[in-house]
């Protein structure tokens, strides 16, 4: 199944339903499909054809969605770029993709102009928001384009999106994702539009991130109204849920924490919200525990995946968030809620392997590897990195460490390069962080390994205290002493004002190791 069919299905079944709400503008599925055709026909006149890469640097908006589907209808490859990229990063990604066209939002015009002479492959630049000299204007392309349906011979295994991984060092890697990677997910997990049942999906995660793309495509395929936010801001999010009566949302843990901790949280009517999916970074237990308490009617889903897997491959479902049953069952569910990332999706195989590539016994820690039709075939124009990441048998090395319990639930134990090895014993940073998070004075924390002559490595806690709270390093380590095996507890503690994070909320452990990883 190719992704252009997602829009065709919804525009045929629910043409008059609102498809997108963006900055006060509303478009039905019928209008969205017409605008996509107009844009695609104008792009075809510009010379964009099958296989061409079409890049975009912008925040979430209706034009972003239209540009994707217009590119897909022409058989092109859509290249969403991180709008936080610096000039040299933008130039690198555009050049690496050899983009033929570049769509750019108003706030990034100056950035693009500053590197325009380095964008040798780009034949056309399209401005979104205002007319610019020597650029096509988006609104003119919509106005002048034919509304006739655009058809191109597409194969389900054709690449539809080239996404860049958010690497913490070095250049980002390009991940080509095929139409079928998204088609298979939709067929397995999303119902086609029901003319009698409508839903509003609040889209906050940026569309240059695979979770944002998955949510957008699921919304279009399912005939859901997409209420799009340019960027996350707590009160704007709460207000949008209330105003648009949103039913679904996806949040990274940092976002969810800010929502439930907002002093005005109870002033907003968010009773329409029924499903909240979270992921992209580890969820502190205290945060999800509080969220369940203050949002009792919401079904929570923990989705785990990577760009290389076209998003979700493991899921901790709503039932796993309901702590009910016998004492033994409750204890098992609490443990899963604290550190499990769920069970494999139906179309994905997941194994835990050792350094020799052999599957380990249940309960033993190893690397999480995955295989299935949604897993990428390899990195864009990089056979060397592909060979290191994809085995000859097609298994993707995720770089994440974990173990699988007797019921098939996978528990995360950290990134392979985050794992702390003390005297031959593996220490999961996440396990220590969960204990640290339970300290009443700690707002957030991270655990890194510090070189030690005797033990090889020792755990170090990097801690942000709650406002107005005070604690000493000895207080923190004593708390760990009471709650962790002796070899796991931090031997030192450093206090900072804020943890470094990437745009999706992941803590940048490499930055912490570079700054605090030595005595």
Poorly predicted residue ranges: none
The number of E-state strands comes to 25
- Count of discrete alpha- or pi-helical segments spanning 4 or more residues: 16
CATH classification, class level of the domain at 4-231 = Alpha Beta
Q: Give the helix proportion (percent range).
A: 25-40%
- Taking the alpha carbons of the first and last residues, their distance comes to 55 Å
Question: For this structure, what is the CATH homologous superfamily of the domain at 4-231?
Answer: ANL, N-terminal domain
CATH fold topology of the domain at 4-231: Rossmann fold
Biggest beta-sheet profile: 13 strands, mixed
Q: Briefly note the structural class of the backbone.
A: alpha/beta
Average predicted local confidence, pLDDT: 93
Radius of gyration: 23 Å
The largest beta-sheet arranges its strands as 2-1-11-10-12-13-14-15-16-20-19-18-17
In terms of DSSP E residues, the strand content is: 25-35%
CATH A-level architecture of the domain at 4-231: 3-Layer(aba) Sandwich
> Shape from CA axes?
globular
Describe this structure in words.
This protein is an alpha/beta fold. Among the domains are: 228 residues, Rossmann fold, CATH 3.40.50.12780; 97 residues, 2-Layer Sandwich (GMP Synthetase, Chain A, domain 3), CATH 3.30.300.30. It contains 16 helices and 25 strands. A 13-stranded mixed β-sheet has the order 2-1-11-10-12-13-14-15-16-20-19-18-17, with helices on both faces. The chain has a 5-stranded parallel β-sheet with strand order 4-3-5-6-7. Strands 23-24-25 form a 3-stranded mixed β-sheet, sandwiched between helices. Helix 2 packs across helix 6. The chain is globular. The relative contact order is 0.08. The mean pLDDT is 93.
